[in-house]
């Protein structure tokens, strides 16, 4: 029995020796794939965060602009007509966006609503390795003027 047992141990040892280099090959093949997945997840998070920040700015600018009502028209109509003071609404919305030069700003003011569109380039980190240094993110928001009670029980 001893020779047979030695033969089986010898075959297992030979099999172990033949498979020792496989882990290094698998690691060399799979490491770039894993790094690419981690890089895309990190850059995706950066782009998502930049988009969320831009959307918050657009929302607040539209709301600030929509609060600029034309007081004279409101008083003359005894509260029946509410319209925007368009120059004031545009000025306040632009001021709420700020003067950041990296943003493209579009502000449309109508008698009853303000629309704000923003876009900018968000920097990437891992995608720079393949030549993509920035990703364009955009956000849009609309705010309408409201007054009085619109719904509810009398």
How would you describe this structure to a colleague?
Helix content is 53%, strand content 19%. The chain has one domain. Helix 2 runs antiparallel to helix 4 (86-97). The N and C termini lie far apart (100 Å). The protein has helices spanning 2-19, 22-66, 71-76, 86-97; strands spanning 103-109, 113-123, 134-144.
Q: Characterize the biggest β-sheet.
A: 3 strands, antiparallel
Label the overall shape. Answer: elongated
How many E-type strands? 3
Structural class, by secondary structure, is alpha+beta
Q: Looking across the biggest beta sheet, what order are the strands in?
A: 1-2-3
What is the residue-mean pLDDT, rounded to a whole number? Answer: 82
Alpha carbon gap, first and last residue: 100 Å
What radius of gyration results from the CA coordinates?
Answer: 31 Å
Strand content: 15-25%
**Helix-strand string:** HHHHEEE
SS element count, helices: 4
Percentage of residues in helical conformation? 40-55%
Summed up, the domain count is 1
The low-confidence runs, each spanning 5 or more residues with pLDDT under 50, are none
Helix/strand layout:
Elements lengths: L1 H18 L2 H45 L4 H6 L9 H12 L5 E7 L3 E11 L10 E11 L10
Antiparallel strand pairs: 1-2, 2-3
List keywords for this structure.
single chain, 19% strand
Structure, briefly:
The chain is α+β, with helices and mostly antiparallel strands. It has helices at residues 2-19, 22-66, 71-76, 86-97, and strands spanning 103-109, 113-123, 134-144. 53% of the residues lie in helices and 19% in strands.
